[in-house]
Specification:
By secondary structure, the chain is mainly alpha-helical. Helix content is 96%, strand content 0%. The protein has 2 helices and no strands. Helix 1 (2-53) packs antiparallel against helix 2 (57-140). It is rod-shaped.
Length: 141
């Protein structure tokens, strides 16, 4: 029983570790997305300033192409973040299931150990009573 308990505890630890790694990936993807969005906002401000000071047609096309690539990078990062969050949710569910199984196994083992202790205590008491009766009989004879 204790072997099964150790196995379920180990599985719970593994799921907890995977959950932590998954949460770290979500945090990284969120940070990268904020960074890309910040770049995009900054370049849009720069575009406004350049447009006000006058920008040529080629410069305008290059700037628009760059903003389009940056927008695509943001879209892709949002997609990665969405997938990472879904994976994190799945890992959380797996961890919860493993934690529940581990708790159940802990209770089963505790119950089993308690029954063993009770049975041993009854056996010890019976043996003690038997010794006491034999000693008492020996004194009477």
């Amino acid at each position: 029983m204790q072997l099964v308990q150790r196995v379920t505890d180990e599985k719970q630890r593994q799921h907890a570790q995977r959950l932590a790694q998954s949460r770290a990936r979500v945090t990284q993807h969120e940070a990268k997305l904020r960074e890309l969005q910040g770049y995009h906002a900054g370049y849009l401000r720069d575009f406004g300033a350049r447009a006000a000071s006058g920008i040529g047609g080629a410069g305008l096309r290059e700037f628009q192409a760059f903003l389009a690539r940056l927008s695509e990078a943001i879209r892709q990062q949002e997609e990665l973040l969405h997938k990472a969050r879904a994976e994190c949710d799945a890992e959380h569910s797996h961890w919860q299931g493993a934690a529940q199984r581990s708790q159940i196994m802990d209770k089963v083992v505790e119950s089993h150990v308690a029954r063993d202790h009770k049975a041993r205590d009854r056996r010890d008491q019976r043996e003690s009573d038997d010794r006491g009766q034999r000693t008492q009989r020996g004194r009477l004879e």
